[in-house]
Design brief:
About 45% of the residues lie in helices and about 20% in strands. The chain is built from 10 helices and 9 strands. A hairpin with a 4-residue loop joins strand 2 and strand 3.
Length: about 325
């Protein structure tokens, strides 16, 4: 091997190593960054070896999708699952869901009042929103009059946060405080809530409230099964709502698909659909992750190409050795015999 060829191989290995190291940094950044969105992994937390998909549907208030509609949706969904021979086994659930709606409101006590963003919730809300896992389940209260206050809302009304059983009026309804949760952090949440801190209440306190966000984790034996069943059981024109398959939005395949649209990446939202801050944050994350995937691909391309070349050369070299020292000797012995 000439010195020139040795120098080329050495330089090539150094360049490939540096580029591979940079690509590894981007790869780790992708893994770390997407792990910061726990809301997108409800299906993964629930799966336990079985394939599930997480689907979120954003519906306009004009659709008048209420608790009664959710009950009918569940009835149709269970019927579809039975038709597809998917039965509940060993007491395990084939799906769980949650629903919510937000309203700009006023909250008050005898002495103070404040603007607030009231989040009316129902179903297994804490399974999707882990920040409420250790909070009292106000959506399961018998009298539907329990609420959770954000820390800011609590301080505006009472100047403290140990407020269990303290009274508060929400949207004109007399309620009792069950707990105080930490304020959401991050610019997306700050811009969204502004001076109206969030308050969480049972949607059955006002059962006619139109649901604007429906979330479900559903068994998904084959790709698109869960999404197709949800679409079939909704009585809406597909052009009027937004459906997201959260459990697949951050995987590498989908992020690669979004690379061609990276420069023009504002997805259409139907009239009347309002996206909550966690969805807004997730959409921003998709853009950032898509860009990181693009950078990873650019930096890994050169070392990956040369890795393939050297692997092929290595296979050919091993084949020549086998031919020379084993195959040829076997042939000689067979011909001699």
């Amino acid at each position: 091997m000439t010195d020139k060829k040795k120098s080329f191989i050495k330089a090539n290995l150094i360049v490939s190593g540096i580029l591979a190291l940079i690509a590894a940094v981007f790869f780790i950044a992708i893994l770390v960054y997407r792990s910061g969105f726990p809301h997108e992994y409800a299906a993964k937390r629930f799966a336990a070896g079985k394939k599930f998909a997480q689907i979120t549907v954003f519906v306009p208030e004009s659709a008048e999708f209420t608790i009664d509609n959710v009950m009918y949706f569940r009835y149709k969904l269970e019927k579809k699952l039975t038709e597809n021979s998917i039965e509940t086994a060993d007491g395990k659930r084939n799906y769980f869901d949650a629903y919510s709606s937000e309203r700009d409101s006023n909250i008050s006590t005898e002495k103070k009042s404040s603007r607030a963003k009231v989040i009316y919730i129902g179903g297994d809300y804490s399974k999707f929103h882990t920040e409420f896992e250790n909070m009292p389940n106000v959506a399961n209260d018998l009298y539907h009059d329990r609420v959770l206050l954000s820390r800011t809302a609590a301080w505006k009304l009472y100047g403290g946060n140990s407020l269990y059983d303290f009274p508060v009026t929400v949207d004109g309804y007399d309620c009792l405080i069950s707990a105080v949760f930490e304020d959401y952090t991050g610019k997306t949440y700050e811009d969204y809530y502004e001076n109206a801190p969030p308050v969480v209440a049972d949607i059955q306190m006002v059962p006619e409230t139109p649901i604007t966000c429906y979330e479900i984790v559903l068994v998904n034996p084959v790709n698109e099964f869960a999404a197709s069943r949800v679409k079939e059981c909704l009585d809406f024109d597909e052009s009027t709502y937004v459906m997201v398959e959260n459990s697949s939005r951050f995987n590498f395949v989908n992020l690669y698909k979004k690379i061609p649209t990276l420069l023009n990446y504002n997805e259409h939202v139907p009239v009347g659909v309002s996206l909550p801050p966690d969805e807004i944050a997730a959409r921003k994350a998709e853009k950032i992750l898509t860009f990181l995937v693009l950078l990873f691909t650019i930096f890994i391309a050169y070392p990956a190409l040369w890795a393939v070349i050297y692997i092929i050369k290595g296979i050919r070299f091993i084949k020549r050795l086998l031919d020379k020292y084993i195959i040829d000797k076997i042939k000689d012995k067979l011909s001699y015999s």
